[in-house]
Amino acid sequence: MFKILIIDDDPIVRMALKKTLQNQGYEITVASNGEEGITIAQRVRPSLIICDWMMLQLDGLEVCRRIKADPELATTFFILLTAKGAAPGEEKDRVRGLDSGADEFVSKPIEMNELKARVRAGLRLYQLNQDLQSQKQALEVLNQDLQTQKQILEAELAQAADYVRSLLPSPLVGDVTTEALFIPSIQLGGDCFDYYWLDDEHLAIYLLDVSGHGVGSALLSVSVLNVLRSQSLPKTNFCQPSEVLKALNYHFQMSHHNDQYFTIWYGVYHHLKRQLIYASAGHPPGVLISGTLATDIRVKQLNPLSLPIGFFPDDNFEDEVVEIEESSTLYIFSDGAYEIEQRDGQTWNLDAFINLLTQYNRTNTCHLPQVLSHIKTLSAKATFDDDLSLLKVNFC
To answer: pTM of the full predicted structure?
Structure first.
C-alpha cells in the first residue's frame, strides 16, 4: 500500500484530501504545518507528498527543498497545491516550484478527479523510480560478484601460469648452454618449450605454441610436453624430428581437441657430429647466428614449410640438417616475441626481430633480458597480448 502525506494548515482541506485518498486505498498521514510535515516524512517515508504552497512560518517551497535534500526522501513524489494565478500557477511561480524540486502542481480550489489522476501518475513514476533503484542495486551487487569472480579467476590463471613455468627445464650448462624467456600474456596461454639429452650424443630442443588462450590451451600445451618428455609416442624415433611431428600430428588432431592446434619447432643436436637436424610444423623459423667476428656474422633461418599440428592426419614433415659452427647461437621463439603492437600503431615484424638478435650478437651482448627490455620499449601496451617465449641455445 502506498503511503501519502498531506501537509496543509487548513483543516478542511486536510480532511477532504484524506477522505478522498483513503477511499482510493492509500495509507494517509496528515500534518498541519511544514515543520511537522518534515518530521513525519522522515519517520514514515511516504511515497508521495501533497503540500500547500502558502503556509505560515515554513511555506511549501521550503518544505519541498528540505524534503528533496534528504537522501532518504529524494525520490518522494512531491505535489504542490497553489492558489497563485491560473492553474498550475504563473510561469515564474512554476519555475520557482520546479527549482525547489516539485514534481507536479495542482491549483486550488482542488478538482478531486484531477487530483486523483495526478496522484496515480505520480505514484506510477515513484514506483518506476523505485524499480530502477532496485535494479541499480542489483546490478551493483552483480558487478561486485563479477569483480570477485574475476579476481578469483585471475588468481587461478596466475597459479596455472606458475605451474606451467614450474614444468620448464632448468638451464643447461657445459658444451651446450641455454637461456630462456617465458612471459605469459594477461591470460594463460599455450606456449611451452623443453630441451633434454635423449642419450649421450643427442640433445632434443623444441618450442610449441597452442592456438588461443586460457586453460584449454595451457592444458594441451602441458599434455604435449608430458608426451614428449616421457617419450610415450609409440614407434617413434625421437632423434628424428619428422617422425616426432608425424606422431604428434596423428595423436593431436584438432577434431579431438576442441578444434585447437599447435605449432612446433623441433630439433635434435648431435654434438659429436656438430649437426642439427630439425623439422617445423607451422612455427616461426629457428634462427641460427654464426661467426665470431662482428664483420663476419651469418644468419640462417631454419624454417621448413609445413602446416601446424592437428590440421590433417596424413600430413608429412620434412627433416633438414645444418652444420653447427663453434660459438654459434640458435634462437627458437613463439610469434608473441615479434607480433608486437608499437606505439605508432604499426606491428613489429619477424625481420625486425631477427635484426635485433643479430645486432646484439655483433656486439657480443645478446642477453635475453636486454631483448625483452627492448621489446617492452616498443610495445604500446603494458602487457603482452600473447605469450612471449624465447629460447637461446649456445653451442661452444
So the answer is: 0.66
